[in-house]
Design a protein that fits this description.
Oligomer: single chain
Bound molecules: S-adenosylmethionine
Distance between the termini: 23 Å
Radius of gyration: 18 Å
CATH class: Alpha Beta
Largest sheet: 7 strands, mixed
CATH superfamily: Vaccinia Virus protein VP39
Strand order of the largest sheet: 3-2-1-4-5-7-6
Order of helices and strands: HHHHEHEHEEHEHHEHHHE
Number of helices: 12
Number of domains: 1
């Protein structure tokens, strides 16, 4: 058990750390995200272009397909943000009910009430569903599941417990789709990179390496799809930055000039990390083994 290895709740970002980033307010994020408020790397199936709206929709579609979620009765979205995928699965793919988990209290109340979804302010480690799920999705949350001070063995133990839990909620043959940033040409055991990001932007969070994901998942899941899309995150960040700069005045009024500049710096530094291949973006489809 991870708790034995590192102590209860010392294994991933706390709710306080998550709210430090996400609860700056949805009105601020609305200024520079797409209309669905998707806050993760978009997907351009062909050439990169300037159309963030279409690329975010294509990303949601990729995950719906990867998780084989269309027409299913019960789907779980771990790290649901402001609910874009939850809503999309119900409204565009006929999913009967989606449970969304988030650690941000602002996000937890962002969708209107519906019999088709249940957005819970709950850590995946605490989630105890009434029954199983037909599919599980998780986009851009895995980056928060382990902390920088953990050893490689401890990080892998956290990731293994995530895959074990997902496997416990899915019948054999059912799918999990996952999207996460990962270290590429950088070994987290050999120092730190961009302390500004780990201290001021995403506290208590570190990234996996691809080998961590493979090692942690392979006892329970077959890896049936993998895309490496670092260039696409660089493009997403470039578009977000341009949109935020275009809204400078409104952004400063909402969150103050210091926060506006901090976010611009975060978008610039993150883009440089993708461009220099310090990190990349993976989209993975898993199938529960028998
Ligand atoms: C970058 S946002 C991505 C949101 C959404 N999936 C999207 O693509 O727009 C990360 C999300 O992960 C959630 N999260 C982080 N750690 C979590 C945990 N331990 N349990 C549940 N949700 C978590 C955050 O609250 C946030 O909603």
């Amino acid at each position: 058990m991870v708790e034995d290895a590192v102590g209860a709740r010392g294994d991933g970002a706390s709710r306080q750390a998550i709210e430090h980033h996400y609860d700056i307010g949805r009105d601020f994020y609305r200024l520079w995200l797409d209309s669905r408020m998707v806050y993760s790397c978009a997907l351009w199936p062909d050439e990169l272009d300037e159309d963030l709206e279409a690329a975010q929709l294509a990303k949601l579609a990729w995950h719906a397909t990867a998780a084989q979620a269309a027409g299913q009765q019960r789907v779980l979205d771990i790290g649901c943000g402001w609910g874009a995928l939850v809503r999309y699965l119900v409204e565009e793919h006929g999913v009967g009910h989606v449970t969304g988990l988030t650690l941000s209290s602002d996000q937890a109340v962002s969708l209107p009430p519906s019999e088709h979804w249940d957005i819970r302010l709950e850590d995946w480690r605490d989630h105890v569903p009434v029954g199983g799920y037909d599919a599980v999705t998780s986009i851009g949350a895995f980056e928060h599941f382990s902390r920088p001070e953990l050893s490689r063995a401890q990080r892998r133990a956290v990731y293994r417990s995530f895959f074990d839990r997902c496997a416990g909620w899915l019948a054999p043959g059912k799918r999990l789709s996952l999207q996460t940033i990962a270290w590429e040409d950088f070994d987290p055991d050999h120092g730190s990179v961009a302390p500004f990001i780990s201290q001021e932007i995403f506290p208590e969070s570190t990234l996996p390496q691809l080998s961590d994901i493979v090692e942690a998942s392979e006892a329970r899941f077959r890896l049936v799809g993998l895309r490496s899309d670092g260039d696409q995150y660089s493009q997403t960040l470039r578009l977000w930055q341009g949109r935020l700069e275009a809204q400078a005045q409104s952004a400063c009024e909402l969150v103050g000039r210091a926060n506006y500049r901090r976010y611009l710096r975060y978008l610039r530094v993150s883009r440089a990390m993708f461009d220099r291949r310090v990190c990349t973006l993976y989209r993975l489809a898993f199938e529960r083994r028998p």
